[in-house]
Design brief:
The complex is a heterodimer of chains A (about 240) and B (about 800).
Chain A: E1 2-3, E2 18-29, E3 32-44, E4 49-53, H1 60-67, E5 75-80, E6 83-84, H2 90-100, E7 101-104, H3 116-126, H4 131-144, H5 160-173, E8 178-182, H6 190-205, E9 210-213, H7 217-220, E10 225-230, E11 233-239
Parallel strand pairs in A: 4-9, 4-10, 7-8, 8-9
Antiparallel strand pairs in A: 1-11, 2-3, 2-5, 5-6, 10-11
Helix pairs in contact in A: 3-4, 3-5, 4-5, 5-6
Chain B: H1 2-17, H2 19-48, E1 59-66, E2 70-72, H3 76-85, E3 89-103, E4 109-116, H4 118-124, E5 130-131, E6 146-149, H5 151-158, E7 168-171, E8 174-181, E9 194-197, H6 207-211, E10 216-221, H7 227-244, H8 246-249, E11 252-258, H9 259-263, H10 270-313, H11 318-353, H12 363-366, H13 373-399, H14 405-409, H15 418-454, E12 465-470, H16 480-496, E13 500-506, E14 518-523, E15 537-542, H17 546-550, E16 554-557, E17 571-575, H18 576-582, E18 592-597, E19 600-601, E20 605-611, E21 627-631, E22 641-647, H19 655-665, E23 672-676, H20 677-682, H21 686-720, H22 722-730, H23 735-764, H24 780-806, H25 810-815
Parallel strand pairs in B: 4-9, 6-8, 15-21, 17-20
Antiparallel strand pairs in B: 1-2, 1-10, 1-11, 3-4, 3-7, 3-10, 5-8, 6-9, 7-8, 12-22, 12-23, 13-22, 14-15, 14-18, 16-20, 17-21, 18-19, 18-20
Classes of the chains: A alpha/beta (about 240), B alpha+beta (about 800).
Bound molecules: adenosine-5'-diphosphate and magnesium ion.
Magnesium ion binds near residues 60 and 61 of chain A.
Chain lengths: ~240, ~800
């Protein structure tokens, strides 16, 4: 294992997919300031599989929310594909979320009223895509995660692992620039967790850029680069051998 | 018992723990139960409560009808026929309303009274509280001059002293011996204060008098005989009479109605229909309230589900929990019922002011909408029923669950079990909207009908008109020219009063409650009138300037003036409807017409004027009855003279001056019923106004409650779907997508509700048909306008929850997981 400095990882010429510069995030609750992130510098290049690790409360989810444009940083700059995004309007941010980012969450992955297929199709409908096209995209995504045969089922009829695979399919369906996963195995038993990690690994091999939060060391090893957070700061950033 | 106590205590604690929920629930229930109790009190007062006569529900009145709809008094002929041929009645009697000039008790006073058969009072089963009633002997021809007086008259003129008995009473210049005092509040027929015996052997009267339609026939049904049977039997007898006395009876029928219905002044049964429609309306409103409360309960129940399941896991039996939940809802319902009673108590005076009945008899009983035992029992039953309705649903829902574990561990409300709860919520809100739509359509139809009735062309201008009544006693005005002289003198002096624009006299004030004078006409050159198809007309004997004072519109020719005297050409002014029926398609001016009555010939009269139709007859307000006006000087009559004055100032300010003028012309002449025309008018559409205002209020309450319900369900749904909405935003949903999602959901519910409501309304509004005027029970415009209104209100109710959904912070929303 080789440890690199953060600067080192950004020297590779081409513009990185994601560049965070001195990003901070401060929450104000009941007159108390919580510094969830304090000066994060992070670059993610196309095709990387980054895992973010660290103890509970260190700011992992907050970082992922900012990366996913669900939240805005309090300070610093964030550019995605070379464009500054921190200052975009709400609808523009929604558009970028929809086209460039695929989310996978720890739980609450699927909408219980919608079938598996409709869940996967959902981000595509927000893109205003025609039904036929949606169908081929969604079907392809379901095939990639091996859930095409369950397309008509409701989420409640699936196991947790299967639900998470459908969630991955939904994240994939729109061909996003990056997949963001927040503890995707947190609610799964180890066998199902392993299966989801294998799936992410396969996706990475076929070219997907992935940024995954986990506090499970075993799963962190699936990634080819691990960023350690502590108290809102990057304390370690290393690339697997 | 112990368990019940425990349930109660726990229930009370739960309710106190959530004061907001408890308050809202109690308020909603109070509204529903209060409205029901108030309307039920009206029904109780008007249709159920005993009246100060014996067993009122067995008493019936037979109404004589012309052409099947036009109500008249009944002739002795009918009475005698029923008495001799009918088997429906245990007893029967006749009364005739009349008024007397009461002289010698201070100012001359006009008192209402009646000439009654001894049998009439016996049939009613009313006995004097002091003294005695007439005996059968006293009611024979040539019997002694005796009288009964009302309790009020006794108090007023005899200070309630027992020595009033055997004192004498001067009525129309004749002295009567007081036999007894009737019970407080009793005033049948009409609003009688004085009763004298009929003292006529009706079988010996000449046929014309026996056929005169000016009595009221009252009868008590024989045990076991229904009103319907009596009606059938009397109709058959009336049919026999048509054949036996074709000259007098052809075209005349009969209808038996209950005394109660008659007292309400409700020949067509509209008061009943209106009350039942309102009862159905408040029932619907209560259902909306229940649905709202059930919604709240369900929403809370879904939230409480885990607690309940945990209790069951800890060993609480399923029915034990149902009982617990029911105890809670019963507690709520009883609290709501108590608050509802307070509300009803507050609403009742308003109902009394809106008084739905035209009848004026027994006002002390029929205008007194008080809460009595029966109303209390009703309120209690409604409360308990309500408690069951809104409590059972959530209770059974929780009892029906068999797998406990998933519910206890359930993290995600959106998956699995909660769906059945949401189905109920949706069902309830659809029902609420459907019911609200039905109420709104009923209210809309009734309000519009009322407005149309109100804006019916009266043919005269009611503002600034004051009217009063005088009856000239035959003893003082034996010569007809004396009556004409009195009228002329009064009019002459009245016209000089400052503030008076014009004045006239007539035999019937338009739309008054009094017995109206009607006649059949015969057109010159036409066939002799066939009583089967000749219309009854309103026949008015009027002074010069009467029609001008009324504000009638002259279409052609001239009105009556002071040159129309006894010795000049007999003339007549007719209404458009009269002309249409007498000379269809022809110019009436110059044509001749005369009154006909069996056994009598009247002189021909030449039509000199045509006026726009005037609404003269209260009972035929919805149609235009033919009217003809003849000069007072040319037609001898002993009808009352009614003064009508148009003022340029507030008409009530002239009352004293007018009284003074009459006093100066004849100091012994009493004046009664001083009323503005607008007061008279306000008494015409009482039932319709009552129905329209209350149904309108119910409809608006229903709409408000349903929109609050919809808002509540939507707000609840947004709170339940926070996570889902956050997820959708994370997946790239634009704000407008979120707005559309929530509004779409709400509008889907609204539209389904509207569709169901349209079907419901379509089938219920027919029941209102008899109350409607000028529009059909399935009026397309009303149906579509109300649907649109409800759609807009639905949109509005969904907008705020949708907007708050749109403003959800996705990060925090997702944190809810
Ligand atoms: N919306 C918020 N308001 C206030 N404090 C927050 C908010 N979100 C996160 N935090 C705080 O920021 C810190 C980082 O939280 P988070 O990113 O969720 O940690 P992790 O995902 O690593 O467990 C924690 O101290 C948390 O309490
Ligand atoms: Mg986290």
């Amino acid at each position: 294992m080789v440890t690199q400095s953060t600067e080192a990882s950004t020297t590779n010429g081409a513009t990185p997919l994601i560049r965070l510069c001195g990003v901070t995030k401060v929450f104000l609750t009941d007159e108390v300031e919580t510094h969830a992130l304090s000066g994060i510098h992070l670059d993610i290049r196309i095709g990387e599989y980054v895992s973010i690790a660290g103890p509970s409360g260190c700011g992992k989810t907050t970082l992922l929310s900012i990366l996913g444009l669900l939240d805005t940083p309090s300070g610093g700059s964030y550019s995605l594909k070379g464009n500054e995004v921190a200052t975009l309007s709400f609808p523009e941010r929604a558009r970028i979320r929809n086209r460039e980012i695929g989310f996978i969450f720890q739980s609450f992955n699927l909408i219980g009223d919608l079938t598996v297929f409709e869940n996967v199709e959902l981000p595509l409908t927000y893109r205003g895509m025609a039904a036929g096209e949606r169908k081929s995209f969604a079907t392809e995504a379901l095939e990639r995660v091996g859930m095409a045969h369950r397309a008509k089922h409701l989420p409640s009829q699936l196991s947790g692992g299967q639900q998470q695979r459908v969630a991955v399919a939904r994240a994939l369906a729109g061909n996003p620039a990056i997949l963001l996963a927040d503890e995707p195995t947190g609610n799964l038993d180890s066998r199902n967790g392993e299966a989801v990690m294998t799936l992410l690994g396969e996706l990475h091999k076929s070219g997907a850029t992935i940024c995954m939060v986990t506090h499970d060391e075993r799963f962190a090893q699936h990634a080819d680069r691990t960023v350690h957070l502590f108290d809102g700061r990057v304390v370690e950033d290393r690339v697997a051998a | 018992m112990q368990a019940l106590w425990q349930d109660l205590r726990y229930g009370a604690r739960m309710l106190l723990k959530q004061p907001g929920f408890t308050l809202i629930t109690v308020a909603a229930l109070a509204l529903g139960i209060g409205a029901n109790t108030a309307i039920f009190s009206a029904i109780n007062t008007l249709l159920l409560r005993p009246l100060p006569v014996e067993d009122v529900d067995r008493l019936v009145v037979s109404v004589t009808l012309r052409e099947g709809f036009d109500p008249f008094g009944s002739p002795f002929l009918e009475y005698a026929a029923y008495r001799d041929r009918s088997h429906s009645f245990a007893s029967s009697g006749v009364a005739r309303q009349r008024s007397f000039n009461l002289i010698g008790q201070g100012e001359p006073e006009r008192v209402r009274g009646a000439t009654v058969m001894a049998n009439y009072l016996a049939t009613l089963g009313v006995k004097p509280v002091l003294g005695r009633a007439f005996s059968a002997e006293e009611d024979q021809p040539g019997g002694p001059p005796v009288a009964l007086i009302s309790y009020a008259l006794w108090q007023k003129h005899f200070a309630g002293k027992a020595d009033a008995i055997d004192q004498s009473l001067n009525l129309d210049g004749r002295s009567y011996n007081i036999l007894g005092v009737m019970p407080p509040g009793f005033d049948l027929p009409g609003v009688a204060e004085v009763w004298i015996p009929l003292q006529v052997n009706i079988d010996n009267l000449p046929l014309t008098e026996r056929a005169a339609t000016n009595n009221e026939i009252l009868a008590r049904l024989r045990p076991g005989v229904s009103l319907k049977e009596a009606d059938t039997e009397l109709k058959a007898i009336a049919h026999q009479l048509e054949q036996e006395y074709p000259d007098f009876r052809r075209g005349w029928g009969v209808k038996v109605i209950s005394l109660r219905q008659n007292l309400l002044g409700d020949l067509e049964g509209r008061v009943r229909s209106a009350l039942f429609a309102l009862m159905a309306g408040v029932g619907f409103l209560l259902l909306i309230c229940c649905a709202n409360v059930a919604n709240l309960q369900l929403a809370r129940g879904i939230a409480r589900e885990r607690e309940l399941m945990l209790r069951r896991a800890l060993g609480a039996g399923r029915w034990r929990l149902v009982r617990q939940l029911l105890t809670e809802s019963m507690l709520l319902a009883l609290l709501g019922g108590m608050a509802g009673l307070l509300l009803a108590n507050w609403l009742l005076p308003i109902l009394a002011v809106l008084n739905p009945i035209r009848g004026i008899s027994l006002a002390a009983f029929l205008h007194n909408f008080a809460i009595d035992q029966r109303v209390l029992v009703f309120a209690l039953c409604v409360s308990l029923l309500t408690g069951v309705i809104f409590g059972l649903l959530p209770a059974l829902k929780s009892a029906g669950v068999h797998e406990l574990m998933p519910r206890i561990q359930q993290r995600d409300q959106r998956v699995g079990g909660a769906a059945s709860g949401r189905r109920w919520l949706k069902g309830l809100i659809v029902a609420e909207i459907a019911i609200a739509l039905t109420l709104l359509i009923c209210g809309g139809l009734m309000v519009q009908s009322f407005q149309r009735l109100q804006h019916v062309d009266l043919g005269f201008t009611p503002d600034n008109l004051i009217t009063m009544k005088m009856v000239l006693p035959a003893s003082r005005y034996s010569q007809y020219r004396q009556r004409v002289g009195f009228a002329d003198q009064v009019l002459e002096r009245v016209r000089t009063l400052p503030g008076v624009a014009s004045a006239g006299m007539t035999t019937n004030i338009p739309l008054e409650r009094e017995i109206a004078y009607d006649a059949i006409f015969n057109v010159e050159g036409g066939p002799p009138p066939n009583p089967n198809n000749v219309p009854i007309t309103s026949h008015r004997v009027v002074s010069p300037n009467y029609l001008e004072t009324l504000g009638a519109t002259l279409i052609k020719g001239r009105l009556i003036n002071k040159n129309d005297r006894a010795e000049t050409l007999p003339i007549v002014v007719v209404s458009q409807e009269f002309a249409r029926q007498a000379w269809p398609g022809e110019d009436p001016i110059g044509k001749r017409v005369r009154r006909v009555r069996a056994g009598q010939t009247f002189p021909w009269m030449t039509v000199v004027g045509l006026v726009k139709d005037v609404k003269e007859d209260l009972f035929n307000y919805r149609i235009n009855r033919p009217v003809w006006y003849v000069p007072y000087a040319q037609v001898e009559n002993d009808f009352p003279v009614n003064l009508i004055v148009r003022t340029s100032v507030d008409p009530t300010s002239l009352v004293a001056a007018l009284r003074d003028v009459i006093h100066r012309v004849d100091p012994d002449q009493p004046v009664s019923d001083i009323m503005t025309m607008n007061t008279i008018l306000s008494g015409v559409l009482v039932t319709e106004r009552f129905g329209a205002i209350l149904m309108g209020a119910l409809a608006i309450s229903g709409l408000l409650l349903a929109s609050i319900g919809l808002y509540g369900v939507m707000a609840y749904s947004v709170s339940q779907r926070t996570g889902e909405i956050g997820l959708r935003v994370a997946l790239g949903a634009q704000p407008k997508d979120v707005l559309g999602l929530i509004i779409g959901y709400g509008m889907k519910l609204t539209l389904v509700g509207v569709a169901v409501g349209l079907v419901m309304a379509w089938s219920t509004t027919r029941l209102l048909a008899s109350l409607l005027f000028g529009l059909s029970a399935t009026d397309i415009a009303t149906f579509s306008a109300i649907s649109l209104l409800l759609g807009l209100v639905g949109l509005f109710a969904c907008y705020f929850p949708a907007r708050s959904a749109m403003r959800l912070n996705p990060v925090e929303a997702l944190r809810y997981e």
